[in-house]
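request received
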Amino acid sequence: MSGSLTASDLSVRYETPHGSVHALRHVDIEAHPGEVIGIVGESGCGKSTLVTALANLLPANARIDGSISYNGVDLAKLDAHHQRLLRGDEIALVSQDPMTAFNPVLTIGDQLVDFQHHRKDLGRAQKRARIAAMLGRVGIADAERRMDCYPHELSGGMRQRVAIAAALLTDSGLLIADEPTTALDVTMEAQIIHLLRELRREYNGIIIVVSHHLGVIAELCDRVYVMYAGEVVEGGEVDAIFHDARHPYTQALLACDPARFHERLDRLPTIPGSLPNLTQPPSGCVYAPRCDRAFAPCGSVAPPQVKLSASHMARCHAVAP
Amino acid sequence: MLAYAVKRIGLGLLILVLVMIAMYAAVFLVPGDPATVALGPRATPELKQLLIERMGLDQPVWWQIVEFFRNALTGNLGYDVWSNRPVSTLVLEALPNTLILGLTALTVALVIGVPLGCLSVMRRGTLADAVIGVLSVGVIAVPSFVVAIYSLLLFAVTLRWLPAIGAGEAGDIVSQAKALIMPAAAIALGWIGYIARMVRASMMEVMGEPHIRTARSFGLPEWKIVSKYALRIAIIPTISLVAVGLGSILSSAVFVEAVFARPGIGKLITDAVNTRNYPVVMGTVLIMTAIYVSITIAADLLIARLDPRVRDVFRG
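response:
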């Protein structure tokens, strides 16, 4: 389908002097134009590796298997030059930390003009006019003057707005927001979520939001993929995930979200144990060592993808359709 | 920014005074009577006394220093003991040759060294990177006077392509340029290596910063990321290095000018030291220190211009 994104059986490993780190294993995701996809999981679950792979920005020591089909093109098989031509044109990334995302010695306007370099049809003045209009749209007052500011002269919230504006200026069909609110305080976070919610109404392409913050995902997304230790363990409509989670990990994750507590607790709940060593991923279920419902096959047999409804799936031995 | 500039200039003047005090102290402390060294053991006591008076060495050291600065303020740097010509004239005659030599060497070093450093980063881990790395260390390790002597042998004596000595015919640009090639190359060679390594090291660091990833995520071509986004930050330590290094460039000019018998400040100082011509030594050191201090200040102001964060620190 035109404009759709499908990753099938996508694996990424990093070759390091201490062995291969299998950061992403057999991931299947799909996204269609007009959808907002959430990717959620704790630190180190592979969500950043996934979006980095989707944005063609993996470091040189990364090896990629499987396919990423976008608009009918397999991104994983493109050479570096063609990957670069897609970045900033078809695929845009809103960077993780707005405090460090911009070059400190160039003005905002200068950088945003450069970021439109794929638009050969526009002159510098037209690019600047587009920037001013887009900065206004993401809620920056006095856009003309802000363009001549250096990044350190803007607040964190304002820089995140600029980062979003930069991505929107590309008119890309795929917009990836990697932890768009993580570096912000709570008030700023609420404002940015509000901004993203407004923008998604006008945006026709695919938006992928990565966050470890369940609230952000719940507010913004249509569908959610829950990741654990490099695998997608559950995926489905946002309602299904938040109200009818089936995978023990998703359930545990939701149970640990302080925003969802109904009463005051003396101790915050946690998931006991820690992430498996990804240089030697377990042969069975990755979550089995921490799972309170683990039984015989979990330790040795990789769990199947259980289809629970048209769009809801979980990768678990203990789940029945 | 203005307050910062004024403060730096004040500090610079203080450095000038301290350097001259150190110079006079050195003359005072060096064993042996300068007049005897200069005139030889068979000079008459009257002649020695005359020379000592002409150099002002009969006065107390502190008075010599005060006199020196009082005269310097009016543009009088004293007189050559032997020719009786004003030191300021001697320095002004020699200075253009040295400045042209130093600036040519520095320009060549920057024009070759900076792109080599960038290329090293763009091709990191490849053969080109390794070759540039090895050559850089190699040329840093060779002293400039060694380069000077060997290039003199090869290009002037054996091949006869370039003139061996002098600064070229007055008014003849081609002959002056030919005379400049070897001395400038002798000084520049090590600096090409220094600058290439410095640019590579600081650029490798900058290339790991998140804003470079942002530039990449918008598909900017690698050459543009290196030359605009990374170099503007990575060049800053190199500017400091070069400004400080200019002192050593000028001091290598002393050797190189001696090897090529090229008129210039270096040759002026060497000759003056050999003949114990103290007024010339003092005047030349003062001018060289002033030039050196001005360049350091200029570099700091340039860095403040290049990096808006530094600029704001001084503004606020």
